[in-house]
Amino acid sequence: MGVDHYSKQEMIGLGITFLFLPCIFVGFRIWAKWLSRRSLQADDYLIFRGLALSIGCSITQLVGSIDGLLGQHETTGPDGQPLLHDPKFLTYQKCKFASQMMAVVGLGLTKISLLVLMRGIFAVSRTFRLGSNILVGLTAIWTISFFISNLFTCYPITALVEEYYGHKCLNSLAMWYAGCITDVLIDLIIMVLPLPMIFKLQLPQKQKLAISAMFVMGTAVVGISITRMAMYFHIGATYLEHYNDDSYFISPVVFWTNIESSLAVILACLPTLRPLWTFYHGGRRGMPDPPSYEPYNSSRRSRHKRIHEPFN
């Protein structure tokens, strides 16, 4: 599958792949919790909601491909012009609209889940708590703002946002650009936020590097975000050449959004999977992690601190 070359089969294959992958990793996350005898926390419940919306995005991609025209050329009439009210084309339009709505909320919840997880790990640092709280607030504002913007792209609300339908709509392409650019910026900040704290943990250098690598793997999500942004700019640059074949040339809006949502859930689960590594290498169920890496719990505060006071 290359730029501007898609097929129905590829859309279905991507939809199925990214439907199951995040489910597997969330399952690993729950298994890791069970192995370490820890209860579910706020970050887990947030990721469950992010997973539900990621699944929703995959389902809309499958419906848009099977019952709609996602990744397929529009049906044309005898005059060679596309049939704008063809039922399959309308199904595609509705799936595209639903995917954008769910992805914004799902990405926001997944980012906040990761921030809450990191805030628990590094809870004794006031500076880190402040930074993570600010990022949680910014992410919440980003999520609400772009959810409302997507919902009210046209008024009255409709999934048919293209100008040829004659509705009163915002410039949806400019809104997509703004959403992608700010999405990348927030991901970059989240990715680098924990690194200074990790390298000040009381751990052997090898373990510090391993933990850092798990967080830095978030660059994969940043890479997907940048790719999605690049595809949006490509669509914007070529749209006037293909305005009469929306379902084919705007397919990346749907499937790159789905890929990003799914990978975000997967990568947000990686820092929680250390008990699986310990278990695989001969550890026992219920064996606690080293104190310096153990997720923060207020009931343990009197027993140890994982990060020394100079980090405050």
SS field, number of helical segments: 11
- Poorly predicted parts: 287-312
Q: What would the principal axes of the Cα set say about the shape?
A: elongated
Major sheet size, sense and barrel closure: none
Describe this entry's structure for a reader:
The chain contains 11 helices and no strands. It starts with 7 loop residues before the first helix and ends in a 32-residue tail after the last helix. It is elongated, with a radius of gyration of 22 Å. By secondary structure, the protein is an all-alpha fold. It has one domain: Up-down Bundle (Rhopdopsin 7-helix transmembrane proteins), CATH 1.20.1070.
Short description:
The protein has 312 residues and is mainly α. The protein has eleven helices and no strands.
Write the layout of secondary structure elements.
Elements: H1 8-35, H2 42-66, H3 87-121, H4 126-151, H5 172-192, H6 195-198, H7 205-216, H8 219-238, H9 246-249, H10 251-269, H11 274-280
Helix pairs in contact: 1-2, 1-10, 1-11, 2-3, 2-10, 3-4, 3-10, 4-5, 5-8, 8-10
